[in-house]
Amino acid sequence: MGLNVVLLGWSWARLLQKKSIAWTVMIIVIKYAVLLGSIYILAQESWFMPLGVALGIGSFVMAALLFGLFDRRKVLGKIGSF
User: Which long-range contacts (C-beta less than 8 Å, at least 24 apart) are formed by 73-76?
Assistant: First the structure.
């Protein structure tokens, strides 16, 4: 888990510095490949519940969309106040 956090921090730092987009894309692709591989392996277990995973991922996506929507309004409100 520690390695994942370090790689995530490193990749976000590269994204924010706007250096070598190829490295950033490669890191994102590798992370999603690992995620999908992990889900595939876990899906073969008897205790794995696909509905629970779908609800968890769906709730994460909805939360990210709502956060983006509200954060956009807050940023646009500050821009309009200048």
Answer: none
